[in-house]
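Quick look at the format.
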Amino acid sequence: MRPFSTASGRVAILAPLSGPRAEIGQALVRAAQVALDTPGAPTLDEKDTGGTPQGAAEAARAAIAAGAGVILGPLTSAETAAIAPIARQAGVAVLAFTNDAAQAGSGVWPLGVTPAQQVRRMAGALQAQGKTKLAGLLPENDFGRAMADGLAQSATALGLPPPSLHFYPAGAAINVLNPLIREMSGYASRRGPLDAQIRAARATGTAEGRRHAATLARQPIPPAPFDALLLAETGEDLEAITALVAYYDIDQSAVRVLGPSLWAAPNSGAARLPGAWYAAPDPAARAAFEQAYTTKFSAPPPAIADIAFDAASIARAGGFTRPEGFSGASGLLALQPDGRTRRGLAIFEIQRGGPQMVEPAPASLSAPGV
């Protein structure tokens, strides 16, 4: 692939401007327009994908034929996979809106916040607190696997022991989750010796034995074999797991529960996990973009528009893999030569009254977890 250049003065954006996701597509285009609304910025060429891989491929060919020096978008993983070989053959860089890290490669950068980026940020913060025994309880689907891979990669990068990873069928019933959580928490080995002592004390048949048994029954059992637990669920599935975590004495004062940025939503079910963490961009980073978008279009931008704004800002600035990275609406981000993207995310804690930011987003690429 030839080096990125905007010498043509044209930047193409591939978005679903028709079909069921047309409203999203329009917001993406508007965000890119805000980023390029400066003197000397490249011309923005809008291409409709129709929200399909075939439509995205056709849009990419049309954009390249029109002289695009870089492509912003498309929206989804499947669309990105469809245009990647077309763009590479033409030597045109792609700043995609998907968060599927599997699409990263030479000349193709997925800019969505990935599960691996979220997990890496939390793992770095855990290590700083002395928590190094990581575990994951995750659904056997693409999202769960992406979270697991992120945890394993983070442990390796930080020099931590390999995490203990446990999977269950997506949407599993309680009768499947129950024995899995019991086993992974080591409940039998933690509870068994104490129960044996209680039985022995009661078996004496004496008042002293009964008092001793009562004293033993009030003692906490030994801690779980991990000090951080990564989950991926929301809603009713998360509520079921939360109940079992408490039942098997996985003490949240000793074990930090981690989850996805989806936990920011009020209906995620995460409110039942006070003290749990998730990583996400600092909302304050988008203030200037939000104001500019609202002024221009008389309505605030949806969250997904941040990615298009950042992509267009990078295209305007040029020099994709500059060492200091970029500061965008979603915070610090840096594009790597192999297509990966590093991000500076904030850490939020589930508290009464809603999530609160407990660690700000790093301002430097040298910070832990970036």
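Next, a different chain entirely:
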Amino acid sequence: MKKIFHKNTILVLVLALLSSCQNLFNDPLIKTNPNAVSAVDVPTLMSGTLLGLGQLHEDTDVRIAYMWSGQLTGESRQHLQYAQYQVTASLFSFGNPYQVAGQARLLQTEANAIKDARSKGIGRVIEALVIAKMACLYGDVPYAQAFDLNKYPTPVFDKQLDVYAALQSTLDSAIINLSAPTGIDLSAGDFIFGGNPQKWTAVANTLKARLYLHLADYPNAIKYASLGVNSIANDALMPHGTSQLVDINLNYDFFYNVRPGDTGFNTPAFLPTFMQNRSNSKTNETALYSWFFLLTGTSLDGNPNGFFAPNAFQPIISYYENQLILAEAYARTSDLANALIALNSVRGSLNTGYINGNTFPATGRQYDPYVIADFGVGGLANPNAYPDTQSALLYEIIAEKYIVTLSQYESYNDVRRLAKATPLIQLGIQPIVTTPSGTIAERFIYPQTEINVNPNVPKVNGQVADQFQKLTIWQ
């Protein structure tokens, strides 16, 4: 893996140094300079694009998101302000996400040039992963006009629901591309799946299911999760090594090298306390708790030898997420039997110690399968005394997902989504300071760099939405 990371350092630097949304769309250098990125062969271009995708799942934006979901807290300097929802437009940027999306679009163009549908399909999945992140954090974002600077120097911001619909179409096209009977050898470029089209197709289907879950379209969430990532062996994971500035996990780098003490898992972080109160005769999460968090004196800083190790994998799309989408969607449509099967599939894998490509210790690890009676009134898995089995089962599904999505921005999506979903099931996460909306921060603020140059940035009564304005899909 180190060779792959060295090989693509220049590509990553290109992605990082280009700074605004507008600068990436159809960059003239791509058309005129034979030494520009487009001169790179498809496998190398793919590995560079995947590196950018991985960085987008470990960046400051993701850290803010899982801070606002209550998994992490800020303890010093800028991250203390983040934790208290004190953010301004100058703190956010469209630069890196749209650079990676632009690279994914370029990958598709180069795949067309060599008539390789599978590569094009992977490029489309990457594009959808990036734009989906933007849409669920910001709401309305550029998409339809986002990749042609000459024609659209100030791209319009598509409505969030339109972006979701367009992403479903992008993923449908990706799945068709990936069904091509043959393709070029991508083993040297795709360091996640080695170019395996079936695994990328499963990722596309899980992403489709995630987006349908966001919209409370539970039948379609079931349909596509049933076609999604179907085993832990097919998790889409960002690999890492132990060399700083080369292949190290960016969570580890931030927590222990760059800004130690800025963040932690102490109160008011909700997740550690939540996990400590979840034991029953079939469940012991002591081992997973220890794998996640390290007690140093009186501070929970995360475990640099476990979940936040320098060479720890970072999940992009996982079997656990897929199965818990299935479980929740089944439960909300009153199919409790299938919901329980999906939940127990996750518990079965956790009982082996598996989490995101690693194994946590056996001592203090217990995830015995549940039966429906466990969720009845007085049942061992109904700690909140719900009067109906459906609500108790939903609570357990949602709780398990909240735990296993540590360090992922999807935990933030879930917290906001669940405030609207029916029946109403919430974990009890509270804002850590008084807010105008009475809730946690609801969205990211449009970047100042975009406000300055693009008149199409959405405004209401002349004002850009602040962090407490709910996004359309969760109003």
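Residues 1-38 have pLDDT under 50 and may be disordered.

See the schema section for token definitions.
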